[in-house]
Amino acid sequence: MTIRLGLVGLGKIARDQHLPAIAATDGLALAAIASRHAGLPDLPHFHDVDALIASDVSIDAVTLCTPPQGRFQQARAALLAGKHLMLEKPPGMSIAEVEALGRLAKAKGLTIFTTWHSREAAAVEPARAFLARHDIRSVKIEWKEDVRHWHPGQQWIWEPGGLGVFDPGINALSIVTRILPEAMHLTEATLQFPENCASPIAADLTFATESGLPVSAAFDFRQTGPQTWDIIVDTSGGTLKLSLGGSRLSINGVEQMAEEDREYRNLYRRFAELVATGQSELDLSPLVHVADAFLLGRRIVVEPFYD
Ligand code: NAP
């Protein structure tokens, strides 16, 4: 069976990753685009998901690549119309709204897939296997990038629900919640808000695992020069370093592997499997940690940010 997909929100990530991954996945066919200002040659194009659903174009599933604000209404419309649903990260603006989508998908017998693309980076599973075999002493996350380079003109990131620096930071949290053998919880946080923005530009977080191991995270959107997407774990078997967003793995400085990333191809293959087998995958743990940071974080106002 071929799953006919409608892609909603033809922006940066849709063009960079979703289109090539859909084209490379057996059993999927891109059937339509819904985006207010963009379309693709030779494909039906609609202003938004409601217009797509109301049309006579037949689709089985919807992928949402829009910003988190507004996702809930789009996702709900898709589920109510009987379409399976794949959500870009973060899966929504709040935990409760994604839980509501999960209940609706279940009631309708549809697949919902909250994707965390960074978990599919090539070195994440090897790191998880290593950590399962060694005692962990501490974890240090450093996720620092230049917002002007990676998110030019994306005003939604600075609005309520846009997450600010947690937009990339949640990728680190998605990896850590995958590779650590035990759960963790936030104990302390400091968030830096530009005086003209509703979302933070930097954050320092302290977590403890269930057995009390320290996990620290430093997120910053103001990094120029070399970019840093590293997770360093001190273990009984040496120092594990995941770098380049989970793409590379070294132990005690020795490179362990260098494989091609297949993040989005893995996500679409998994989505096709979930639909075919009538299952869902809905993991909110990275978003829970972000919500806790907004609950617990001490807020500092810093200089205004202009793109
Ligand atoms: P983007 O470039 O701003 O694209 C989002 C698209 O959604 C826009 O082009 C826009 O197309 C549409 N849209 C619908 N409602 C919108 C609204 N109210 N405000 C702005 N755009 C709206 O953003 P993106 O970087 O692709 O990110 C989209 C989602 O993917 C985010 O949740 C982000 O966290 C996630 N993501 C991004 C990256 C990345 O590297 N950029 C990586 C992984 C995941 P129309 O104007 O045509 O409707």
Characterization of the model:
The relative contact order is 0.17. α1 crosses α8, α3 packs parallel to α4 and α7 packs across α9. α3 (71-80) links the parallel β4 and β5 (84-87). The protein is of the alpha/beta class. The strands form 2 sheets. A 9-stranded mixed sheet has the order 14-13-12-11-7-10-9-8-15. It has a 6-stranded parallel sheet with strand order 3-2-1-4-5-6, with helices on both faces. The protein has helices at residues 12-23, 49-54, 71-80, 95-108, 124-133, 147-150, 166-179, 263-277, 285-296, and strands at residues 3-8, 28-34, 45-46, 61-64, 84-87, 112-114, 136-144, 184-194, 202-209, 214-220, 228-235, 238-243, 248-251, 254-257, 298-302. It has 9 helices and 15 strands. The structure holds NADP nicotinamide-adenine-dinucleotide phosphate. The site of NADP nicotinamide-adenine-dinucleotide phosphate has 22 residues, from α1.
